[in-house]
Amino acid sequence: MSIRVIAIDGPAASGKSSTASLVARRLGWAHLDSGALYRAITLGALDNLGERGAGSGSPWSAQQIVAVAEDLPVRLVLVDDVFRPEVAGVDVAQAIRSERVTQRVSEIAAIPEVRHWVNVQQREAVQAHSRGVVVDGRDIGTVVFPDAPLKVFLTASPEERARRRLAERGEGQGGRGGSGEAEVHREAEALAARDRADSTRAVAPLKAAADAVLLDTTRLSLEQQVQAVVALARTRLPG
């Protein structure tokens, strides 16, 4: 029997998590944001291994990070059809969005042993929820669930993604002219750098699966994105 997974991948600020969350709600499925688990591990490492900076000469070892994740533990807990990250029994859904976590999560997520640990947690979560799970991330359709019956790769122009990211942070009210465009340009450059890092890393690089449906969301509203994925889901995964 085929696994009931919808894999939604794409670069930062392409709308993955928002789309995945609403698609799961429409279908009555659960939602799992793989990025939240990577952020939770990063938070656990920062709080328990010290605030060492990258390149400080004493980086955390992969074994240390995985041991902290196991011991605390870092885990996914299903609450109202959403897999939420917990660290040492505490809901960290808000804490993992801090700037200190954002600055280090890419570094931690690039470690092969960490990715393996996260992938195991995701697969176990999906196996325990047979109704269906919408999972979003950067390697869900290529590495974590290569047999998912529906894989979607979301993208959007760098400028549109930058506007969305600024809006998430409550910035960029300058609009599409003047200082607003300068903000958008800076954010687009930062996202492009993240894209390069994610796409060229040795382990699980960001790329669309060969059988993924490509969905450019540049000119789509969130509702249109959700409707498109739900329509695909109802065709590929009836019932």
How would you summarize what this structure contains?
Helix content is 49%, strand content 16%. It has 239 residues and is α/β, with parallel strands linked by helices. Strands 1, 2, 3, 4, 5, 6, 7 and 8 form an eight-stranded mixed sheet that branches.
Secondary-structure blueprint:
Blueprint lengths: L4 E5 L6 H12 L2 E4 H16 L12 H10 L2 E6 L2 E6 L2 E2 L7 H11 L2 H16 L5 E5 L2 H5 L5 E6 L2 H11 L10 H22 L12 E4 L5 H15 L3
Parallel strand pairs: 1-6, 1-7, 2-4, 2-6, 7-8
Antiparallel strand pairs: 3-4, 4-5
Helix pairs in contact: 1-9, 2-3, 2-4, 3-5, 7-8
Summarize this structure as a short list of keywords or feature phrases:
239 residues, alpha/beta, 49% helix, 16% strand
Q: Using only CA atoms, what is the Rg?
A: 18 Å
Average pLDDT taken over every residue: 89
Helix content: 40-55%
Strand content: 15-25%
Per DSSP, the total helix count is: 9
Main sheet summary:
8 strands, mixed
SSE arrangement, N to C: EHEHHEEEHHEHEHHEH
> What is the end-to-end distance?
14 Å
Uncertain stretches: 54-58, 173-179
Category by helix and strand content: alpha/beta
Shape: globular
Extended strand count: 8
Report on the structure:
The chain has helices spanning 16-27, 34-49, 62-71, 99-109, 112-127, 140-144, 158-168, 179-200, 222-236; strands at residues 5-9, 30-33, 74-79, 82-87, 90-91, 133-137, 150-155, 213-216. The chain has 239 residues and is an alpha/beta fold. Strands 1, 2, 3, 4, 5, 6, 7 and 8 form an 8-stranded mixed β-sheet that branches. A hairpin with a 2-residue loop joins strand 4 and strand 5 (90-91). The protein is globular. The chain starts with a strand and ends with a helix.
